[in-house]
Amino acid sequence: MKKLFILLALYLPFVSLSANEDSAIANYKKTCKKCHGSAYYVAKERTSDEWTALFENNGKKLYSSHLSDEKAIKKLDSSYFVNRREDLQKFLVDNAKDSGTIPPCNSTTCGFYVKVPKKDKKPTPSLFK
């Protein structure tokens, strides 16, 4: 019986981490994927410090970098995005180009870039402009 409790104690933190990542990916797919492509590909475009800076002050820089796109602003203002923003930030920071993580590839999520047609793809705004 003790072994069962020990196994559960070791297993539960991994389940909760997975749930946060699933929430972040679902949020990304609903709000960002149409313009930016694969979540793992986008995460690798910036360092963890850059992602942290974008999400500071409730995502003020993230918001201001999308001001030219009315549909993007509407999605960023949605309660769906706002309620899951911290999970998305954690996901992007944990999978940033300087994080050392290798993205998974399975039937539901692929860590490789899924190309979005050029006419629909919007470039990721630079932090250095």
How would you describe what is shown here?
The chain is mainly α. It has helices spanning 2-31, 33-36, 39-43, 48-65, 70-77, 79-94. Residues 14-19 and 111-115 have low confidence and may be disordered.
List keywords for this structure.
globular; 6 helices; single chain; mainly alpha; 129 residues
| Count of separate structural domains | 1
How many extended strands? Answer: 0
What structural class is derived from the secondary structure elements? mainly alpha
Mean pLDDT: 77
Topology:
Blueprint: H1 2-31, H2 33-36, H3 39-43, H4 48-65, H5 70-77, H6 79-94
What's the short story on this structure?
This protein has 129 residues and is mainly α. It has six helices and no strands.
